[in-house]
Amino acid sequence: KQEVTQIPAALSVPEGENLVLNCSFTDSAIYNLQWFRQDPGKGLTSLLLIQSSQREQTSGRLNASLDKSSGRSTLYIAASQPGDSATYLCAAQTGANNLFFGTGTRLTVIP
Amino acid sequence: ETGVTQTPRHLVMGMTNKKSLKCEQHLGHNAMYWYKQSAKKPLELMFVYNFKEQTENNSVPSRFSPECPNSSHLFLHLHTLQPEDSALYLCASSQEGTGPDEQFFGPGTRLTVL
Predict the structure, then answer these.
(1) How far apart are the C-alpha atoms of B3 and B14, rounded to whole Å?
(2) Cβ contact (<8 Å) for A46 and B99?
(3) Measured between alpha carbons, how far apart are the two ends of chain B, in Å?
(4) What beta strand segments (E) does chain B contain?
(5) Mutate which of A24, A31, A35, A44 to disrupt the B interface (most B C-beta within 10 Å)?
(6) Do A43 and B45 count as a contact with CB atoms less than 8 A apart?
(7) Are A103 and B41 in contact (CB under 8 A)?
(8) Facing B107 at nearest CB: one of A42, A49, A96
(9) Taking CB atoms and an 8 Å cutoff, what residues of chain B touch A42?
(10) pLDDT at B40
(11) What is the DSSP string of B19-33?
């Protein structure tokens, strides 16, 4: 069974810093890897989806990379802002309905 | 309304109550999902419906009963729940559940069982 791990569980950075969130998965046979943002008590907002054939995806200040062979993905956030404070979840899809989630990294950006 | 909506957003119920959660998607998708998110645990897939047919039941206790009357609506009927069932229940949809589609999530229902 796919297991997804996110380290660290929590991260605090001062505003303006660049940061990297890590995601690792045990089964490299994935279709895609997705990053989500979740605000407290709210649903998930999709940020980036990387297909298994891709190495990275970019959206604004966000860049996600994927290394299937090593079972790792990173989410890079440039010039962090207080509004980026949220929990970031990664999920690896191994089948039609099989989306395996990590427990998330709770990010706090300090003004 | 756009995207995936869920009602109610918050629900408090006793262990003997019967209640229902509702999910509606406005994306023209054919697959809908129920997930459970408990504190400090990864999201757990509960049920999957493709074209109104249930295609996955992830060993969910029978006190949770899903219903999918059409491709746009999904319900989760709750009966005789336990306090450990308190969690955030998230609904999602995707274009077609037969392939690895991107899933779009609703805002969730925060359920508290007393």
Answers:
(1) 31
(2) no
(3) 32
(4) 4-7, 10-13, 18-25, 31-37, 44-50, 53-57, 64-70, 73-79, 87-94, 104-105, 109-113
(5) A44
(6) no
(7) yes
(8) A42
(9) 107-108
(10) 83
(11) EEEEEEE-S--SEEE
Q: How far apart are CA B72 and CA A13, in angstroms?
A: 41
Instruction: Show the DSSP H helices in chain B as ranges.
Output: none
Question: Digits of tens for pLDDT over chain B (114 positions)?
Answer: 579 999 999 999 988 889 999 999 999 999 999 999 998 899 999 999 988 888 888 889 999 999 999 999 999 999 999 999 999 999 999 998 677 788 999 999 999 999
How far apart, in whole angstroms, are the C-alpha atoms of residue A65 and residue B30? Answer: 30
Phi, psi of A31 (to 5 degrees): -85, -40
Chain A residue closest to B102 (CA)?
A49
β-pairing verdict for B4-7 and B104-105: unpaired
Which residue of B lies nearest to A42 if distances are taken between CA atoms? B107
- Beta carbons of B88 and B110 less than 8 angstroms apart: yes
Run of H or E including A47: strand A44-51
Q: Which residues does chain A have within 8 Å of residue B33's beta carbon, measured at their own beta carbons?
A: 97
A24 membership: H or E segment, kind and range: strand A19-25
- CA-nearest residue to A49 within chain B is B102
